[in-house]
Amino acid sequence: MDSPVRIPYESFIKIDRKSDTSIYLQIANQLINAIQRGFLPFGTKLPGTRTFSEMLEIHRNTAVAVYDELSAQGWTESFPNKGTFVIGEDEEKPIKVNDFQHNNLQNYPETTGFLFKTSNILDNPFEHSDCEYVFNDGVPDIRLTQIAQHSRFYSSILKRKSNQKISGHYNHDGSEFFKEHLSRYLNLSRGLPISKNNLLITRSTEMSIYIVSEILLSPGDVVLVAALSYFSVNMIFMKAGVQMVSIPIDEEGIIVENVREACKKQKIRMLYLTPHHHYPTTVALSAQRRLELLELANEYGFIILEDDYDYEFHYDKSPILPLASADTNGMVIYIGSFGKSLAPGFRTGFIVAPENLMAEMRKYLGIIDRQGDILMERALGEMIEEGEINRYLKKSLKVYQERRDYLAVLLKENLENLITFQIPSGGLAIWLEWNVPINLMQLSRGCAQDNLFIPKTLLYQNKNLTAMRMGFGDLNADEMEKSVDVFSNNVKRLIE
């Protein structure tokens, strides 16, 4: 075996003296790395602590701590009057000592040593930009959220001795306190006659739909979606291996007669809907069509997956109650989000379904999100109990309605003859359709050069349609004016 002095330890042990990790641990970890990769094979004798400390320019006590760590972890063994040696299997062809300087032990493998399936279905469709202004999908303005007040709720709960016990326990069923108050809240605000046993708390709408698809869909099942639908949900359905059939929409939402015709042709497993404000067009599904769809579901036995992603945001009149509120035969699964108008960390998703299905869903949630966030759910429950949710929502809705109306004014002033749009009754986005030919990708690139970012996920263009979804929720008056000015100038430049 090579003499310990001949091994160039200083070439592969790098010490970062500004790191929070102690020096002895840095060295020990790098020596273990060298042993694991075969650079210090079985039987290698390490230099004495005095020699080792001089080689690396460290204190001898640090070298002693390194060797103690190696021994404690079972990588080395010391023998009186002989020295410290590497423990392990004797390799037939150990790596030569003179190869040390040509290998960087800090490198992590660039590729796996095994094959695995890849999927382009789940490629991230979201884009990011450093532009100062952004037209987004229709998201709340975090600047309007009372983060300090929300944090006080959470901080108060965290400090209570009564909560210290439950905070250390996993509970994939969620906070019973929160579910109790959320079920009452949904009963009063959305007409859902449910108990806490009909609720599953999730992290997001996407997680909710993933759990539903895992339990209820099998490869080859037929799922009906609107001709224009939410791309993330479509990705989940495609990953499940289902056959998606597009159903046309109009100013009253999805066309029921086309759903009926699809049911006559083949067995339909599920219909996915966003009836409150259809995504992306923002139109509301009429009350008559809601009743007709429930009748069709009962007749043909398909599931209605109702996604109420922005029920909280309505302005002009009381919102139409969900289909789930009128479902008496257990054909509707209702998913939604709660606290969307609050600070991001205070938002959550949920699923409403009959108890027999809920029992199965809890099994899946227990695998993918066993711990949950029981303290945050407790905070949300108290915010419901004290009326904080309603007070804040009432204030924020007034601001969002003013922003919706102002964006409509700006669009009419700048592009009145070029676009068509309806002022939505709720939500945080407006749906625009062009009256003139225009290349939306060119428009997006031109706006980006002028510091306005328009993600491609907002653009809808084919031979029959040229349209986009324009979010207004997170733009104040000044930002809105500048964004619309850039937008309209680029539109006019392209059509001239």
How many beta-strand segments?
A: 18
Protein structure class: alpha/beta
The largest sheet, given as strand count, sense and whether it forms a barrel, is:
7 strands, mixed
Strand order of the largest sheet: 5-13-12-11-10-6-7
How would you describe the overall organization of this protein?
- With 496 residues, this protein is of the alpha/beta class.
- The protein has 16 helices and 18 strands.
- The protein has a seven-stranded mixed sheet, sandwiched between helices. Strands 14-15-18-17 form a four-stranded antiparallel sheet, covered by helices on one side.
- Strand 14 and strand 15 (429-434) form a beta hairpin.
- Helix 2 packs across helix 4 and helix 10 runs parallel beside helix 11.
- The radius of gyration is 30 Å and the shape is globular.
- It starts with 8 loop residues before the first helix and ends with a helix.
- This is PLP-dependent aminotransferase family protein.
Task: Spell out the blueprint of helices and strands.
Layout: H1 9-12, H2 23-36, E1 45-46, H3 49-56, H4 60-72, E2 76-79, E3 83-86, E4 133-134, H5 147-159, H6 161-167, H7 176-190, E5 199-202, H8 205-216, E6 222-226, H9 231-239, E7 243-247, E8 249-250, E9 253-254, H10 256-265, E10 270-273, H11 287-300, E11 303-308, E12 332-338, E13 348-352, H12 355-368, H13 374-385, H14 388-415, E14 419-421, E15 429-434, H15 440-449, E16 452-453, E17 459-461, E18 466-471, H16 477-495
Parallel strand pairs: 4-16, 6-7, 6-10, 10-11, 11-12
Antiparallel strand pairs: 1-3, 2-3, 5-13, 8-9, 12-13, 14-15, 15-18, 17-18
